[in-house]
Amino acid sequence: MTDSRDPNTAPDARPAPGTTDRPLRILIGADTFSPDVNGSARFSEHLASGLASRGHDVHVVAPSAGRKHGTWKEVYDGHVITAHRLYSWRWYPHDWLRFAMPWRIRQNSARIIDEVQPDVVHFQSHIIIGRGLSTEAEKRGIRIVGTNHFMPENMLAFTGIPKFLQNWAIGLAWAAARRSFLRADAVTAPTRRAADYFEKETGLHDVYAISCGVDASLFVPDFAPHTENRVIFVGRVTGEKHLDVLLKAIQLLPDSLDVKLDIVGGGDQLKNLQTMAQQLGIGDRVTFTGYVTEEEKQRLYTRATVFAMPSIAELQSIATMEAMASGLPVVAADAMALPHLVHDGENGYLFAPGDAQQLADRLERVLTLPQEELDRFKNESLRIVEAHDIQRTLTTFEHIYRGEPVPEAPHPVSSTPPA
User: Fold this and answer.
1) Transmembrane region positions (predicted)?
2) What are the pLDDT digits (tens) for 294-333?
3) Which domain CATH number covers 398?
4) Structural domains counted in the chain
C-alpha cells in the first residue's frame, strides 16, 4: 500500500496502468451489492454507475441475489456495467445476507480476472470476494485498491458467537483484514475517523480518507414553514442503529409538539421495534415504511423537519449526507464519523450515545427553533454536504486507479468563528 499520507504525493506502488485519460477497465469486488440495501452496497453501486457514466468499462464481482448466477449486464442510474454474480448461499441468521463460496473464491477470482484483464481491482471488503480478488490480482501484477466499510462488531449479532469469545473473534477479523489490505497499492476509508480507526485496528498506515459521496441534485430541500413536526430516520433497522433510543426519545418529547416519526428501511429488528412503539404508547405516531423506492425516500426526506441518527457504528453514513442534501438539520450520536457531518449548534446537534433524554432534548431544540434559525441550520447542512459531492469522489478514485497524485479533499469547517 501507499507509503505517503500526503494526498498531493503520488503513491509509491507497483506500476500504474498509465497516466493518460484513457478509459480504464475496472473490476470492483463487493461482498454486498444491489439489491442489498446498506451503505457499502450503495457506495459500490454508485461508484460503479458513476465510473461507467465517465466512459470506463466497469465490472462488478458480487454474490448472486438468488439461485441464478453467471455474467450479464446490469443497469444502475441509467448506466450499464458487467456483473459477475457468483453462486451464493443465504446466511439465515441475517435477514438478507448472501455470501459466495469461500473455498471457490480464488478459482473464481482467477477466472474472472483472466477474462476481464482489468487495469485495476478495487475491493470493498476483505471477507470473501476481496480476499480472492486481491490474492489473484497480486499474482498478476495488477494494481489493487481496497476500501474498508467493515466493522466486525456490526456482524457479531448474526454469527452466534458467545459473548465471551467475541473479542477473540474481532481480533481474528481484523487480522484477516490486515492480510488482504496489505496487498493493496492504496487503501481508503470513507472519513478520516474511519481511516484512523482502521489503522489502529490493523496496524496499517497511510489510509486515504475519501467520502462515499452523494449526488445532491437528486434531493429537494424545502424552506417553506413546516406545518408538522416530523422526524425521519433512514437506514437498516438493525441493532447497531440503536433505534430503541430514538423511540424512547420520541416518547419523551412534549405532547404539545405532536411529533411524528418515519423509520424508513427494513431489517431484523422491524417487528421488535413496532412492538416497542406500541408499548411506549407512540404506535400511532410512528410509521415503519419498510423498504421504499428512491423517489419515495427523496419525498420523505423533503417533507421531514429533522433527521435523527442514533447509530454508534457509522464509518460515514450515506443516509445522513442524503438528509443534509435535502436541507435537513441533523441530530446524531456523538460517535465514530458522525461529528464530521454534524457540526454541533450549526447544522444540528450531537448527543451522548444511548442517552434518550438528551436525544429528546436536542430534537425539541430543533423543532422549536424560530424559522430564521431553522433556515440557517438547513443552509448549513447544504453547505457542509457540498464537500461530499459524488463527482469529486469519482475523480479522486480515478487518480488513485492510475497511480496519480491524489487531489486534497476539502474539509468542511465550522462556519462560526472561534470565540
Assistant:
1) none
2) 999 999 999 999 999 999 888 889 999 999 999 999 999 9
3) 3.40.50.2000
4) 2
Decide: helix, strand or coil at residue 239.
helix
CB-count burial class (<10 Å; 0-12, 13-18, 19+) for 168: exposed
Written as one string, the DSSP assignment of 153-204 is HHHGGGT---GGGHHHHHHHHHHHHHHHHTT-SEEEESSHHHHHHHHHHH--
**Residue 392 phi, psi dihedral angles, 5° rounding:** -65, -40
Together in a domain, 198 and 224: no
Cell numbers linked to 148: 474498508
E strand or H helix at 29? strand 25-29
Considering the domain architecture, whether residues 226 and 316 belong to the same structural domain is answered as yes
- Same domain, yes or no: 116 and 152: yes
Residue 15 lies in a domain: no
Residue 67, C-beta contacts closer than 8 angstroms, at least 6 positions apart = none
Whether 26 and 418 have beta carbons less than 8 Å apart is answered as: no
Range of the domain at 67: 25-213+389-402
Any bridge partners for residue 140, and if so which? none
- 417 in a structural domain: no
Pairwise CA distance, residues 283 & 280, whole Å = 7
Do residues 91 and 113 both lie within one domain?
Answer: yes
Per-residue pLDDT of 216-272, as tens digits, reads: 999 999 999 989 999 999 998 988 899 999 999 999 999 999 999 999 999 889 999
- CA distance linking residue 105 with residue 102, whole number of Å: 5
3-state helix, strand, coil in the chain (%, to 5): 40, 20, 40
